[in-house]
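Hi W.,

Here's what went into the run:
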Amino acid sequence: MTFLSVLWARRSLLFGFIKRDIKMRYTGTLVGGLWAIGQPVMLLAIYAFVFRRVFRVELPDLGANSFVAFVACALWPWMALQESVQRATQAIASNADLVRKIRFPYEFLVLAGVSSSFAIHFTGFCGVLMALSAWGEPFHFVALPTVLLAWLSMFMLALALALVTSSLQVILKDVDHLMGPAFMLLFYATPILYPLALVPEVVRPWMEINPLLHVIEPLRAALLRGEGAVVSLLPLLGLSVLLVLAARALFVRLSAYFEDFL
Amino acid sequence: MSSAIPLIRLRGVGKAYPLADSPLGRLRTIVTLLLGRPLPAVFQALSGINLEVHRGESLGLIGVNGAGKSTLLKTIAGVVRPSAGEIEINGRVSALLELGAGFHPEYTGRQNVFLAASLMGLSDAEIRARLDDILAFADIGEHIDQPIKHYSSGMVVRLGFAVATCVRPDILITDEVLAVGDESFQRKCVSWMEAYLRGGGTLLLCSHSMFHIEKLCRKAVWIHDGQIEAYGDASVVTRDYLAWHERRLAAARPGAQPSNAQAAGQHAVRKLSLNGCGAEGTEIGMGETLTISGVVFAPDGRPPVVALGFLKADGTPIYGLASDMDGHVLSAISTHEFVFNLSLPGLLLLPGHYIVRAHALDAEGYRLFDEVVCPLVVKGDSREMGVCRLPHQWHA
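Here's what came out:
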């Protein structure tokens, strides 16, 4: 495939962009990368306090695991998706100088934006899992391949979404404003704070349209209960690859006109 | 000299920009683009460009600002998709549309070299191999490890060009890059380009410096209003272009008109005439007598100073004088108005188009207030060169 060969031939450019993206986020900060883990940890603490101490929610089927572990499994992949798409939406517009002056595969800017967010939050995810299991939280690390595959699917979904939003954003500035409400809706429509089992039967088929559900649920089942084989995630991965290809086709079509609108 | 297959071939290339300013228009644009239809309501930046560039046949692009030169270069560089016609490129193209494009202000010079060079298509290993050459060319010493936001604009430009020198493309596209940087840097760039040309490279150079165009390019193309106005030998095209500029300048200056200075109660030239003709100017034969006369307004009632000058049609000064230099005092015709009459017997300007300019100065000749111009055409036959005849004599 030609895109993969371009990707390989110009990998130093891609890594250059990723490195720059990560570096520029934390230049001039005191604690640097700690910010990356700080926000989700704070969110986690808030949810734990509100749901466990205030509402006194008891989730079924948790077994030996805590509510914190239950939310943590889903929160980091979610953060990676939300943050990467929101940041990468601006990837083309904020690099207007580059796009208007130099010919290169512009999707690298989007890919780099998504990759850096995922790299940061995947690191945070690993750190939190290790901290929790050191605290005595029983995770099923045998299911690691499933977990990795779920992350990969999440990455592909984020990339597909970001390719669409970043190219539309160049022409229509509403896209960026749409992100906030859309992600808020999606956050509650995805079983992150609650298990799918608690959702009323009538609503469930509608919720299952959401591809994120099919990432979060198997990932959680794997980590908390050791369930779910790698093959169960393959259809989703296939779908996300198709989505990336479709999104890239749209991106390439619009990218010919970026210079007209920047 | 030129091989059969051109490096660049443009056939009927045109570029139209969408003028979608309303939000709804933008939404419609997205739909149109996705359906692959042409865009409506457009600004035509380029149209009907046919051009071939052969190996070793460097091409200079000239034209006024906004003529479409940069759009044409961007189209060839692949940044802009043409809305009509075809482009065929046979070779590796490297485009320097802006020196330092792709630099990040927070990055150090060295980090920026890596990023900019990989943008140009070099791998990390290639960059590392050429790093010393790049740094030597840029010549910015220990600042290379400082963030470039602390660089002077000249240093950024030097680094930008240095990165470009490490890529050896078949075609190098440069847009006005020689206009920036100091004299010695320009010389360095030009000598690098000459070496690049000697090495078989082909240059596409957009510049407002006819000197650079003639020095570096064999052919030149003059772009006007998005179309090719002239194409051919660089020296011929640049000469035509300069002549056109002179004509345009002459046309843009209608001559003696009452100016704003007068309304504000300042010193002003109220009337300027050449051999009795006013704003439209006059024609005289070479060697005839020219009389420049006019009226100067002085709000303080003291005799003002008038300065008169001769310029080429492009604004290059030829000769100038002021009444106080010769100790001449203008005579009053009313409390605030003073006349001057200057005759130049046997005017030795060579045939051509000129401008006569008059300035009003205060009584001390310190402050200059007003400017009024009048076109002057000198007619005659002469094969002499330059702007004026110097008295001369041949000896045995």
